[in-house]
Amino acid sequence: MSGVDDAALVEAYLAHVRIDKRLAARTVELYTGDLARLAQNAQSAGVGLRQVQSAHVRRWVAQMHSAGRSARGIALILSGWRGFYVWLGRQGLVTQNPVQDVRAPKAGKPLPKALGVDESVQLAAHVEEGDDPALEARDACITELLYGCGLRIGELVGLDVAASGTARGWIDLQAGEAHVLGKGSKRRSVPVGRAALESLQHWLAARPSIAGEDPALFIGRHGSRLTPQHIRVRLKRRSMLAGLSTPVHPHMLRHSFASHVLQSSGDLRAVQELLGHASIGTTQVYTRLDFQHLARAYDAAHPRAKGRGPAKS
Asked: Is 109 a catalytic residue?
């Protein structure tokens, strides 16, 4: 195949993945597009596909990144190119794979989704009149603790009614503190606010109507400890009944707790301790959320905000 031109090489490789490797038609279609891009790049650089070097590939990656291609999209394209050169190597047509040591740009971490203060209060204050009063009290308490304390869902379901030698977590009503077992089996104490304490007392008064022998703080109709999935379903339902524009999941309330505490206090170290993060770097993502909040406030209130952006030359 040493005298075969680039187009024929591509066709031979696509036949290989379609017939020999039996890849799905959609995958072959994607490879076809990726290799057409590779061939066009090589032609523009004035080289054949077998003469492509790592420097060429890095330049093309930079161009795709500058053009707005996502890190994941670039990684997939590189994977297709890499496979093509592996095959060329097996055919004895190249001595090295120019894509082997080229990596896509790192994908930026998406910001955690958090509710605004008004939405959080709307969800916490919602009362579903048609529900069983005990279940409504339970779901309201779950919402208040997730938002008011920033608990992880695993920490929440691990709470027992009372402290004991076997309890993973409990709430001290007198001290106003939740004692939880977090990641890495690390214990921490978190303040419980007035609204959450009132909601908890309301739930504890209603709990005996469905309680069994389970020591869990949060139980279902049959008296057994709630599972994380059960809480996710109930919270999503509650958010929709409360009229929120987006379904709410438990971790969203943890993000909301952290963002709102940071907005009010500006104390990143305190938020780190409240969340139980081992590293301050994990907590710093909320500074980006905080900046977004400040930017929105600026856009809404400042007389010079409209049309904010780069100056036109």
From this structure: no
